[in-house]
Amino acid sequence: MSIQRRSILQALAATPVALPALTGVTASLASGTAAAASIAPKQANTYQVKDFGAKGDGKTLDTKAIQDAIDAAAKTKGTVIFDGGAYRTGALFLKAGMTFKVDQGVRLLGSQNIDDYPLLPTRIAGIEMTWPAALINVYKERDVKLTGDGIIDGDGKVFWDSYWAKRREYDPKGIRWAADYDCRRPRLIQLFEADNVRIENLSMYRSGFWTVHICYSQNIEVYNVIIRNNEGGRGPSTDGIDIDSSRKVLVEKADITCNDDALCMKAGRDADGLRVARPTEDIVIRDCIVRDAAAGVTFGSETSGGFKNVKVSNIKVYHPTPVGILFKSAQTRGGNISGIEISDIYTHHVPVVMRVNLNWYPAYSYAKIPAGIKDYPDYWKTLSTPVPKEKGIPQLSDVYVHDVKAEGGKTAFEISAYPEKPLKNFRFERMHLDTWSAGSIANADNFTFKDVTILSLDGKSVDVKQSTNIKGL
User: Fold this and answer.
1) CATH match for 39-471 among 2.160.20.10, 3.40.50.2300, 3.60.110.10, 3.90.1310.10
2) Which terminus of the chain has a smaller tally of CB atoms within 10 A, N or C?
3) Where does the record place the Rhamnogalacturonase A/B/Epimerase-like pectate lyase domain (predicted)?
């Protein structure tokens, strides 16, 4: 591949319509004959996977050879390297002190056999349970670097298809909420109870499930990555970067196309999330592009442990993404969300600029086991454990949104909460929103608007209901 990654990111940031050029690069790599990188130079303290028996032909399962190279590198805090080619592999486990380098012209290609991803204790979609390992795992390790200009490709369509088959089976039975948990699919990268990990410069494609999952971890950096999950289809639940009950995380210069939340904060679901009670805190997300996703920046729906001290800045969100800024939860989630600053946001033909929905997707959010089903896994019981209403309604407060520009949207605000726990202390400053409708705000207290212009084509102002102390509208 002759195009330099940094130049791709700069070009995409300047001209969103440049996507066909990138798609062309993807297509050339999809053949399994990556534009051949020269043989990786052997340097001191490096471990070439072919020296451990890897074939790199895109067909042979190279898991053991690559893992043997990883284990050898870990003993000397060395670096694993690859010659150019496509390496088919199952789950890999990086170790403390090592570097895993996927250079330009190298493509890791995920196995399509779920048995190649061993089951491990983890958290998935808000509850602690056993789940298949990711393609790349930093599992209870520290001081790891995952780098290079190459590609990590989950080749996940077989897992997407299995999910849709499960949905077709479950939806008529009223157990849509169980499909995501019963259909086990591998994530692309999992950081679990990890410390001091950096992921940089990589391209990530076709994850079977979430792409980068940062869970119970700290001191994590994700820098200058491209995520493309809608190649050859639209992968369900293929979130971009999920920060889950973790702290001190920096995400910078991510360029994302996926089929669910692009940049997402999570902190546990319902009774299990309230039991764990671990917040997501001290998070910085900046200088990112979202081209196609369920939302640009998302808080939730897994809010049980709460979020605090989160700063999001300089995010560009493009159509067909339906929402720019999204807070979502449910009346069984609970959690306190406060200390959020969102700034320098640009949305282009994104229908809704900002949405707060605390009764999000009831068919998924509220797990109830039908009376006729007697035999089910233990985690169904976990999911359906009742949460008292006084603990279940989340509290959002102290949110500062400023310097936002929206062009060609449908609605500026779709914001509502519950009367017993209104949204509190929101500030909106320096916003210029060109939308068809100004939208609505309900169940809010102490909202302040300063230098906010809404060019609503329907000529109406924001519809405010059941709210107090709304200033500046």
Assistant:
1) 2.160.20.10
2) C
3) 48-89
